[in-house]
Specification:
single chain; 244 residues; alpha/beta; seven-stranded parallel β-sheet
């Protein structure tokens, strides 16, 4: 039987494509999602259609209790988690002065505390096994900052610091921790942008197009593989040359 991967926020976008990609490679996939039962089931049905193995678990990454329940269920039914992908995240577009304390807290609870919650639960088993892969999803805006996205940029920058520090700490246990910072990817998160903005972005990206979720998923597979055993603490940006 294949190894087990747990992916947060996997009912759509990068998370969904990653769930399918890992399942095709023989991984047993724990699919965490929060709200959209229909979208999550669609991912599970597609995985089942090609003979893959997955388990849907519903929970809020911002809740340590939810994540404990999710991870316990995945571990019980699919086996010990050897790959953790902290993908779940939320964004907010608005000037800093309009960012309420409640919105700021919400973004950090999901984007940063979520990664803490899952990692703190999975890590003891990885240390005991002396192996594991932790992959955190940041953003180019965590690297450069984005006007009118201060809270989002700050939370994604925190993920980069989290990645680098934890990588140093757990490397002696043969656990790698890496960060993927996607550029503008053609997902639901960017679907709300009007066509003029998308056209301008395409013109600014040297590759001349938005990225695909499948392209990010391909990198995640590589980072989870044995070939990446010496690659840790790195921030890899899939952005078509948008940020260099």
């Amino acid at each position: 039987m294949g190894e087990t991967v747990f992916i947060t926020g996997a009912s759509r976008g990068i998370g969904a494509e990653s769930a399918k990609a890992f399942a095709k490679k023989g991984y047993k996939v724990g699919i965490n999602y929060l709200k959209n039962d229909e979208a999550a089931q669609k991912v599970a049905d597609e995985i089942a259609s090609f003979g893959g193995t997955c388990l849907l678990v519903k929970g809020n990454v911002a809740s340590l209790e939810d994540m404990q329940k999710n991870i316990d269920e995945v571990t019980e039914k699919l086996g010990k988690i050897s790959v953790l992908i902290n993908n779940a995240g939320i964004a907010y577009n608005g000037v800093f002065q309009d960012t309420s304390p409640e919105k700021w807290d919400e973004i950090f609870k999901v984007n940063v505390n979520g990664a803490y919650n899952t990692t703190s639960i999975v890590l003891p088993s990885m240390i005991s096994e002396k192996r594991g892969r932790i992959i955190n999803i940041s953003s180019i805006w965590g690297m450069t900052g984005a006007s009118c996205e201060v809270a989002y940029s700050a939370s994604k920058a925190a993920i980069i610091g989290f990645t680098k520090a934890l990588a140093k700490e757990v490397a002696p246990s043969n656990i790698t921790v890496n960060c993927v910072a996607p550029g503008v990817i053609d997902t639901d998160m960017n679907a709300s942008l009007d066509e003029d903005v998308l056209t301008q972005l395409r013109e600014e990206i040297p590759s001349g197009r938005l990225g695909k979720a499948e392209e990010v998923a391909s990198l995640l597979l590589h980072l989870a593989s044995k070939d990446s055993a010496y690659l840790t603490g790195q921030v890899i940006s899939v952005n078509g040359g948008f940020v260099l």
